[in-house]
Amino acid sequence: MNNPPKTALVTIHVEANSLAFPLAAAQLKAALPKGLSKNTDIKDFYLAQKPSVIAEELAKTEYDAIGFSSYIWNARQVRETAELLKKANPKLIIIAGGPHVSAMPDFFLKDDLFDFLIKNEGEYALEKAIGSEPQEKTVVLDGPRVNMETLASPFLSGAINTDNYDGVLWELSRGCPYNCAFCYEARNHGFVRRFPMSRLAEELKLFIKKGVREVWILDSTFNHDEKWCTAFLEMLAEEAPHIHFTFEIRAERVTEQQARLFGKLVASLQIGLQSSNPEVMARLNRPFKPQNYKKKIRLLEQNYLVYGFDLIYGLPGDTLESFKESLDYTLTLSPSNIDIFRLSLLPGTELDDRAEEFGIVHDGSYERLVVGRPGFTDEDLEEAEDLTELCDFFYTKGLASIWFKTACDALELTPSFFLERFGIWLEQNDFDREDLADLDPAPLQKEFLEFCFSWRNKKELYLPLESYILWHEGLNMIMEGEEERIVELNYDPDSLTQLDVIGLANFATYFPPTPQNWRIFTEENNVYWEPIV
Q1: Contact 326/275 with Cβ under 8 angstroms?
Q2: Which residues lie below 8 Å from residue 191, measured CB to CB, with a gap of 6+?
Q3: Which residues contact 388 (CB under 8 A, 6 or more apart)?
Q4: What are the strands, taking DSSP E only, across 5-145?
Q5: pLDDT over 70, % of the chain
Q6: Which of 266, 428, 450, 473 is the 20 to 30 Å CA partner of 192?
């Protein structure tokens, strides 16, 4: 064995994107004594890579110990990779930690493949595992809670170089004050610990110095503490107004002051709605008041914020109809995106513990997805999945948030029925649903909208909607960096600003079409438009 031991800390990410940042591995490396830390490599892999490929790459270096961060999506790949490594080198110390180890240690204990399993927080326990000899029986270490005041920063310590990644995950706290039945974070219900603001300020300075452009905030309680949230947002607005930050927030906790401060940033907000049915939400330990929720979202709208929602179908008490109602409710709030998931019974959560009581069974896959049950059959789940795909393509990928509600209102169709009709239209026009991922939504949106307004005997309303869409497409291109954009509109852009206020029918009545080419351009960081004569 090398002295100090040569170690690899491995993360198998879902895919290569700006979220594929090995924060856990970096945090573990930073917490090791200096000698061990210097002799520790951070290794990144992805689900698309076979375990044999990962094992072969790791075997190129004579490591004494290899540690894996294990999550629900990579647990089987971690185990299969570990089997190959152990078979090739029985003296190699193999360690696993992470949420899946803490929640389902039995999965990793089988055959004593791993020398050490580290449950809970691993920073203080990893050193012992690395410095040991191979074990005949798997040893389970219960990692103690770290001291948030003194724990080394993965960024300030140099444990990881942000230059090697497209984005940064930034951990601000651990624990959660909420008790959501579907969420693994609820295991730390009531225990919220934050890193010192002084440390966060220094990390932010480093991000600015290194030219970091994208930061994902990891803090399940971000806007729970009004005073702390205000201070942190003020720091970001003053020091880093150019960095794009993504936050997960609780809409119920949004205040006017928070919305105003978020509005000073380049920021995206993701909101875990899950369902708009109060009875379903009650089973998740999530009180929900639909009208109050809408008021909070309006605060975000008034400050021109980009926000999206998460929905889950297959929850206890949920039905296909209540899921459609949740989708309708969500789309009327005009989010920039909606991420929709089938319920996954995460190990260690209250829903998993009470699955038999709720009559919920999972499919046995690594994702532990729920299967059909009375009230939400397999056929219902398939229909919900179908709606999910249609919504993702037409609404989120199709950037329809600006005009979607206006179109549905004019057609007098609920959003879910509109999307269902889009699915039928695709089949009638011989589009292969499996090819949607490779198609551009815009031409299909145009064709389907023309069909809908003809079908609903409202052809005269399509003309202003078309101009509204084209105008906003032009504005989006300018915001993404184009210097100018020429668009052919049937209405004056200043008139089009009234469309979403008065509706398509009133707009078509009061504003006659005036076909004209328009130039949209930027000047001194402002956006302008002018007619081309």
Answers
A1: yes
A2: 174, 175
A3: 313, 340
A4: 7-13, 40-46, 65-69, 93-97, 116-120, 139-143
A5: 99
A6: 266
Question: What residues form DSSP beta bridges with 217?
Answer: 170
Q: Which long-range contacts (CB under 8 A, 24 or more apart) does 291-298 make?
A: 292/252, 293/251, 293/252, 294/333, 296/251, 296/252, 296/254, 297/251, 297/333
365 sits in which H/E element: none
Rg (CA), the chain: 26
Four-residue CA torsion sign, 313, 317, 322, 328: negative
**What angle is formed at CA 168 by the lines to CA 28 and CA 286, rounded to 5 degrees?**
85
Q: Which helix (H) or strand (E) segment is 249 a member of?
A: strand 244-249
Q: What is the pTM of this model?
A: 0.93
Residue 266 · residue 242 · CB < 8 Å: yes
Q: What integer is the mean pLDDT of 270-280?
A: 96
Question: How confident is the model over 129-181, as pLDDT tens digits?
Answer: 998 998 999 999 999 999 999 999 999 999 999 999 999 999 999 988 888 99
Q: Which residues on adjacent β-strands are paired with residue 212? A: none
pLDDT tens figures, 328-377: 999 999 999 999 999 999 888 999 999 999 999 999 888 899 999 999 99
